[in-house]
Amino acid sequence: MEYTTLGRTGLKVSVAGLGCGGFSRLGLGTGKSETDAIAIIRAALDLGVNLFDTAAAYGTEPVLGKALAGVPRDKVVICTKAPFGISNPDSLPERAVASLDRSLKELGTDYIDVYQLHGIAPRVYDHALKVLAPALLREREKGKFRWLGITETSPGDPEHQMIKRAARDGAWDVVMVAFHMMHQNARRHVFPLTQDDPLGFLVHEGGATSVVDAAYRFVRHEPGVDVVLFGTGDHAHLRSNIASILKPPLPEADRARLASLFGHLVGVGLDAPHLSRAGRVTTS
Ligand SMILES: NC(=O)c1ccc[n+]([C@@H]2O[C@H](COP(=O)([O-])OP(=O)(O)OC[C@H]3O[C@@H](n4cnc5c(N)ncnc54)[C@H](OP(=O)(O)O)[C@@H]3O)[C@@H](O)[C@H]2O)c1
Q1: Fold topology of 3-194
Q2: CB of 89 closer than 6 A to ligand 1?
Q3: Domain ranges across the chain
Q4: Which one, of 133, 141, 76, lies nearest residue 109 by Cα?
Q5: Which of 10, 37, 115, 177 is most buried (CB neighbours < 10 A)?
Q6: pLDDT in tens, 6-25
């Protein structure tokens, strides 16, 4: 198994996580038994899987709890979700808290690693952010869960309207998004917002030596551009900027990725200089 860091949580998680919902529900959805489901979870553990995603709505929290009993708690990352629907009583904050308490009981654990609001549609996002999240964060202070997450309702929100807002808000530690071969638009709409280092792909052998190097080379080789202006008061920057501007274009794949990720943006990073108290023009 390979392990990675789950966003800003810092949790070390397997790159393959076992989903306990969907059509399969660990096989329970297709007529298999609880014993079979426990065997699947244990086999996943043996193969190095340490992240398990369930939800109150899936009905698989008890079986996951049974399968993980006896496994040291810090060896697994348990993610579960509060049921949600603006028209049902679970959308009340006290119901979400009651569901959290029920999940803890059914999973047989003292805390949940990632507690998520389940399937939030764009029209109810304000309620999730302003009413449910604060109520749940008060429970987090009591130690009931460690990180707050949100998941989209992908069939009803294929353009990721909700996650586009959530990823910018900073209120959520984890977002769950639908992405697959025939539904790739999260690459443009979501992933640039969720990466700690969204431009890191530019720095590699044969590519740029730094993001600053990439920035100057990107502009220098754009057809239509004759002169690249750079501002600096630093001698090292003066030299490295000129060196970057004299380098060849970025690899074509990197240019294409920049175009696809950011080509639709307009007006970003155009802050005007402002006057400092000393009356000099400064930039921020
Ligand atoms: N909004 C949300 O919060 C949300 C939405 C969707 C999903 N999720 C999470 O994401 C997880 C994964 O979702 P999903 O849609 O992939 O789950 P799913 O609906 O269970 O889909 C997997 C399906 O593919 C089959 N399958 C799996 N491996 C296969 C293989 N190698 N060859 C052929 N068929 C195979 C499974 O059947 P078998 O049992 O026969 O393998 C199952 O029917 C869920 O369990 C849930 O945790 C969350």
Answers
A1: TIM Barrel (3.20.20)
A2: no
A3: 3-194, 200-282
A4: 76
A5: 115
A6: 989 999 999 999 999 999 99
Taking the CA of residue 152 as reference, the ligand 1 atom at the shortest distance is 1
pTM of the shown model = 0.82
Which residues, at least 6 apart from 113, have a Cβ–Cβ distance to it below 8 Å?
A: 9, 11, 77, 78, 79, 145, 146, 147
Write a three-state SS string for 192-223: HHHCCCCCHHHECCCCECCHHHHHHHHHHCCC
213 Cβ closer than 6 Å to some ligand 1 atom? no
Residues in Cβ contact with 69 at an 8 Å cutoff, skipping those fewer than 6 apart = 108
Greatest Cα pair distance in the chain: 75
How far apart (Å, rounded) are the C-alpha atoms in residues 158 and 178?
8
CA 168 to chain CA centroid, Å, is 11
